[in-house]
Write a structure and sequence with these properties.
The structure is a single chain. By secondary structure, the protein is of the alpha+beta class. The chain folds into two domains: 6-71 and 106-177 and 273-374, FAD/NAD(P)-binding domain (3-Layer(bba) Sandwich), CATH 3.50.50; 181-271. The protein is built from ten helices and 20 strands. It has an eight-stranded mixed sheet. Strand 9 and strand 10 (142-146) form a beta hairpin. The protein is globular. 45% of the residues are buried. The mean pLDDT is 96.
Length: 377
C-alpha cells in the first residue's frame, strides 16, 4: 500500500519526469501537465555529477543515459591568453559511488527524451500545452484546475514547474528567484580534438569560460559575464558577442569560435538563487526541483538536487501508508538542509569571482559539497 494512489505533477523537467517514473513504476496513477507544447528538441548541454547518475540507475534509465552522453573523470583548469596552458588537472570525487563515473555531459533534449519515454512506458499520462491554473484542497484530496477547468481530484499535487512556478504562487509562497549578478552565454558545438573532460578558464575578458563534452563529437561551451539585459539581442548579435568575448581564450576556444561563426546558436540566461524554507508543502501540494530551490550552475548540482528531491519524495510516498505530517517531516529532514547547502555554496563560488577574491578556498568548498552529495540523500 502506498501513501498515494493518484498524483498530479506540474512540470515536465527533470524533477517532474523523474517523480512520474518513480511513482508510475510503483503502480500510482500519474497525470503530468506541462505548459510547453512539446519537449524541446534543441538546446545546450548539461553537466551531471555522480549523485545524479545514481538516481538515473534507480529510475531504470542509466544505460540509456550512459549511451547518450559522455562520461569522464576530473576537471582541467586552463589559463586565459596565448596557448591556454593547463595549469591544474583536478580529480573528481565519485559522488554516486564506485559504480558510476564522477561526471557526465549530455544534451539536454536527449535527457528530456529519455525521461519522457520512460515515464510514458511505465504508464504516466503526460499532457503538453496544459498549465495548472488553480487548486483547492480538502482533508483527503486536492482538486486541480488546468487551463481554468477542473481535471479531477488527486491525493497529491507535485509542483515541479520550474523557476517561475505557478504552483508555488497558487499555494501562497512568495519566494522568487533573485539574480546573483552573473549571466551566462551558452552554445552547443562540435567537440574539439583533445578535449576529453570539462575545462574551465578563470579570469580574462569574462568571469569564467568553459566547456563540457556531451558525446563522442559534441560539447557545450559557455561564457559567464556580469549580468545585463540581453533580451533584445538578435541571434546574429548573440553569436557576435560570444565570438568577441571569447577572443581572450586560446586553445579549444579557437575551434568553438569557428563553429559559432558557422551558425551555432548562442543563448543567454541570468544566474539566480532561491530556497523555500521548510515546509515545501502546503497540505497536499508540495514543491520540488527549481520550484523549491535554484542555484547558479557553478557546482553543476541543479539537476542533481531536483533528481534527489524526486527520489526522496517518491520513496517516502511508495513506502508510506499515509500522507501525514510524519512523512512531510521525513522529507524536509532529508532535503531542505542539503539543498540549502548546495545553493549557498554555488552562490559563494560566483560571488568570489564578482568580488575578485584571489585567496578563496574554492577547493575546500567544492570538497565539502562533494562529501555531502556522496552520501545518499
Amino acid at each position: 500500500m502506498t501513501a498515494v494512489q493518484k498524483v498530479a505533477i506540474a512540470g515536465a523537467g527533470v524533477a517532474g519526469l523523474a517523480t512520474a517514473i518513480f511513482l508510475a513504476k510503483a503502480g500510482v496513477e500519474v497525470d503530468l501537465y506541462d505548459a510547453q507544447p512539446s519537449l524541446p528538441t534543441r538546446g545546450s548541454g548539461i553537466t551531471l555529477q555522480g549523485n545524479a547518475l545514481r538516481v538515473f540507475d534507480e529510475l531504470g534509465v542509466w544505460d540509456e543515459v550512459a549511451a547518450s552522453g559522455r562520461a569522464f573523470e576530473g576537471l582541467n583548469l586552463r589559463a586565459p591568453g596565448p596557448g591556454a596552458p593547463v595549469v591544474a588537472a583536478l580529480p573528481d570525487m565519485k559522488t554516486g559511488g564506485p559504480d558510476y563515473p564522477s561526471t557526465m555531459g549530455m544534451s539536454r533534449p536527449d535527457l528530456a527524451r529519455i525521461l519522457l519515454e520512460a515515464a510514458e512506458r511505465h504508464g504516466a499520462r503526460v499532457h503538453f500545452g496544459r498549465t495548472v491554473t488553480g487548486l483547492s484542497q480538502s482533508d483527503d484530496s486536492v482538486t486541480v484546475e488546468v487551463d481554468g477547468e477542473a481535471v479531477g481530484a488527486f491525493d497529491l499535487l507535485v509542483g515541479a514547474d520550474g523557476l517561475h512556478s505557478s504552483v508555488r504562487e497558487l499555494i501562497g509562497i512568495r519566494v522568487v528567484p533573485q539574480q546573483t549578478g552573473m549571466g551566462i552565454w551558452r552554445t552547443f558545438v562540435s567537440l574539439p580534438p583533445g578535449v576529453d573532460r570539462s575545462e574551465l578558464y578563470y579570469g580574462g575578458p569574462v568571469y569564467i569560460a568553459g566547456y563540457t563534452p556531451t558525446g563522442d563529437d559534441t560539447m557545450y561551451a559557455f561564457l559567464v559575464e556580469p549580468a545585463q539585459d540581453r533580451s533584445g539581442v538578435t541571434p546574429e548579435e548573440a553569436r557576435r558577442i560570444m565570438i568577441e568575448q571569447s577572443r581572450g581564450y586560446d586553445g579549444p576556444w579557437n575551434h568553438i569560435r569557428a563553429d559559432i561563426e558557422g551558425g551555432a546558436d548562442a543563448n543567454y540566461t541570468w544566474f539566480t538563487r532561491h530556497i523555500v524554507d521548510a515546509p515545501w508543502n502546503r497540505g497536499r501540494v508540495v514543491l520540488i526541483g527549481d520550484a523549491a530551490h535554484s542555484c547558479p550552475p557553478t557546482i553543476a548540482q541543479g539537476a542533481a538536487q531536483g533528481l534527489e528531491d524526486a527520489a526522496v519524495l517518491s520513496e517516502l510516498l511508495v513506502e508510506g501508508d499515509a500522507l501525514d505530517q510524519a512523512l512531510w517531516d521525513a522529507f524536509h529532514a532529508r532535503r531542505v538542509e542539503r539543498a540549502t547547502a548546495v545553493v549557498d555554496a554555488s552562490v559563494q563560488l560566483g560571488q568570489w569571482q564578482i568580488d575578485g577574491v584571489r585567496d578563496a578556498d574554492m577547493g575546500g568548498l567544492l570538497s565539502g559539497i562533494a562529501r555531502l552529495t556522496a552520501v545518499r540523500a
